[in-house]
Structure prediction request, 322 residues.
Amino acid sequence: MQHLDLQVIERALAWSAAGQRVWLCTVLSTYGSAPRAPGALLVANGSGEWLGSLSGGCVEDDFLEQLRQGEFAAPAQLVRYGDGGPDARLTLPCGGVLEVLVENLPATCEVQAHLRELAGALRGQRRLLRTVSLGDGARSVEDDRAQGPRIESAGDSLHIRVGAAQRLLLAGCSSVALVCAEFAQSLGFEVILCDPREEALAGVALPGVEIRRELPSEAIRAGLCHADTAVVALTHDPRIDDLAMIEAVRTPAFYIGVMGSLRTTEKRFERLLRVGGLSRDDLARISAPIGLNLGSRTPAEIALAVLADILRVRNGIAREQL
Prediction:
């Protein structure tokens, strides 16, 4: 199933190609209780058709009503929901606050080319940094080679990171991997578990997780990793963990980690240098021992440390800043 934001951009492109003006909405920031994260998308056309989500219902209804009344004529404008202030559209029942960018996009070749670039990024072809001017609605994109917040403000412009749905690739099944899968899903990650061992997967039930009965290294070599993928190996089995690391460092994955003590890590890195064909630069991409040092002992505590470290890297935060 396609990620919802990709469906939104493809629908916007189809409407635009059919000669229809579209309004593209992007969640910029949330405060308090809010069901959609920054970067989430919704698109509507002049006939009142729409696709996507901003809040789960109440904001969408207000937006569509305002659109029917002729609001949002500007090329780009900010709309604030939920704080009860003079600029807020309505009070959200959940008590949250939501700020949304609304872009009024005419049916032009330039707009359609821009939407095609966004669709490619959401498919995992490349990561983009999208810049939108609040003054005149001018748009541009460039390759995004850094990690950081999805939305950043720079004067009267907004920088919006656009990429594929965040993916967690679990290299091998273990008690820690199972908890990681549950945590990651709650954080909005697409989760894939790869393990060829039938005995390891016996009785495993993870609704919403794609389970592939193959070596993780083979799946990675086949192209399962894009720039918004985190690869973690948590089995203590070098036949799975080491091979996964050898393949993962050859991909644009933003996070690569493997579980083990300091001594286990030293031995693993020596093997990867000696027989795995990796370089010191390759090893520098691997987080090992994996996760933040939280004094974790149980599978749930270790999984928490792993996901916290993945989020740290995804948000562009150095360890020394913690």
The CA atoms of residues 27 and 100 lie 5 Å apart.
